[in-house]
Amino acid sequence: MLRLVDEIKEEYGDKVEVEVYRGPSEKAKEYGLAVSPAIIIDRDVRIIGVCPTKKTLREAIREAGVL
Fold it and tell me: What is the C-alpha to C-alpha distance for residues 12 and 17, in angstroms, rounded to an integer?
C-alpha cells in the first residue's frame, strides 16, 4: 500500500496531504480504528481493512470532493 500512496502523492502533488502511521497510534484511536490498513480522507474513514486499487483510491478521493 505504501507504493500506492507514493504514486498518489506523485500524481496529485500538493493537492493531497498524506500521513502514514504504522502500528497502534493515537491517530488510530482517534478514529476508532482496530484494523488496518485504513484510508481517511478529509477526516472521514473511507476505506478500511483492505488495500485498495489505485482506481478505488482515486474514486474515494473524488467522492470526498477533495479534488
Answer: 9
- Alpha carbon separation from 32 to 36, 38, 51, 58 (Å, rounded): 11, 11, 19, 24
SS3 labels along the chain: CHHHHHHHHHHHHHHCCCCCCCCCCHHHHHCCCCCCCEEEECCEEEEECCCCCHHHHHHHHHHCCCC
Q: How many domains, in total, are found in the chain?
A: 1
Please tell me the distance from the alpha carbon of residue 21 to that of residue 24, in angstroms, as a whole number.
8
Retrieve residue 28's grid coordinates. Answer: 488510530
Residue span of the structural domain in which 10 resides: 2-63
Q: What is the pLDDT of residues 3-38, one digit of tens each?
A: 999 999 999 988 888 888 888 889 899 999 988 899
